[in-house]
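Late entry, evening session. Most of the bench is empty. Finally got around to the prediction I had been postponing all week. Sequence below, unchanged from the version circulated by S.P.
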Amino acid sequence: VKVNAGLTNLNLSESNITNEDCQHIADMLEHNTGLKSLILSSNKFKDDGVNALCRAMTRNSTLIDLWLSGN
């Protein structure tokens, strides 16, 4: 997923994603240029996970939709 430009939508809702997992997702977002929509709703991460994702978004110019509700 890190460099897969063909993947444009990824739904990981209700996947028990933690703050640590968000760190890995954030790393992917910093390098991925194809993903347009990422759904991370209803997982287990909190502020630390959101902060990691926000930092990654400063380096990602292609993601249009990021869903974080229910965390």
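Two things to note before I forget:
The longest helix spans residues 19-31.
Residues 38 and 66 are 5 Å apart (CA to CA).
Will write this up properly tomorrow.
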